[in-house]
Amino acid sequence: MGHPFGMNKTKKTLFILLFAIPILGISQYTDVINSNRPGQSVSAYAIGKNVIQAEMGLLYEQQDHSLLNTQSNIWGTEIALRYGLLFERLEINWEGIFQNQKTTFLNTNTEVSNTDFNRNRIGLKFLVYDPFKNPEYNKPNLYSWKANHKFQWRNLLPAVSVYGGANFLIGDNPFYLGDPTISYRAMVATQSRLTPRFVMITNFAYDRISTDFPEMSYLVSISHAFRNPKWSVFVENQGIKSDRYADNLLRGGVAHLWSENLQADINLGASFKNTPSRIFISMGASYRFDMHKDKLIPIDDQNAGENGGPIKKNSMKKKKKKKEKDGGSGAEDIDLAPSKKQLKKLKKAEKKKKKAKKKEKEKDDGVIEF
Question: What is the model's pTM?
């Protein structure tokens, strides 16, 4: 018996999700790696044009099912490959989990072992709205350090992306018995910077469309960067609902940025029920091959003086030395607001800029104000 979502209707739905939503913003390429690890949530932002990224990990899980009276030990490998395709807003990605599950039936003392892909899907993610496209939105308050670090209601306005993809089964997959070789997945991902150190991500997905057991799920993840932004922590809640399996999971973990292109992580979690009960741990790393190049802007289209005037001698050497002194780059997705010292410099520069504009206006008008 087939699911009421037929093949033609499924393709039409995915087409609408990918192309019918207006293009409202552009993605933000970051100077440091932007990884979806260590959690399962997916960032709203693409990784940037011509960037190749690998996110890999090893996982272990123990499951105990009280009704079936079984115990399972699972070992697996998590792999995700991402590529910034064609332009900044678009990303193509492949996600796979290859695992071995050994299940012991305690009533009969028998053991069954299954090995295959628990996840094998490919998809496209497209950023449709970015609140930070407008530079005025993220402009710091030059008169208040506190205002730059407190929660503001406007920060709830998220970046939004849509995802359309497909799941693939190779042969007779023991984890999805009876499912067709190809099924479909659609998702909406949002990302909000609540404060300079807190980021919230949400995912709402409709998965395995066109099977007898379609699955709906949500993910809510909050991450926090420490004072040393190379370290960050996260907590994540995931809900899953389908006729085959339903659950509510909680996980948390730590990520450390080793360099601009390398991040290591570890996370652990558990379920809230005993059919089955689940305890799991995963550790891994993400590495980026950065071939991104900024789009060149003709001199005629540039606004002179906006970026601080001419480049001074040895300025790049000084910048590099300061970067090394500070300990490298910060954590991904975290844009820390200016410090109090930086605010004083910005305020001084702003006053100087206003004074220069006033003099320029007086010169044009031919009037001298006393």
Answer: 0.73
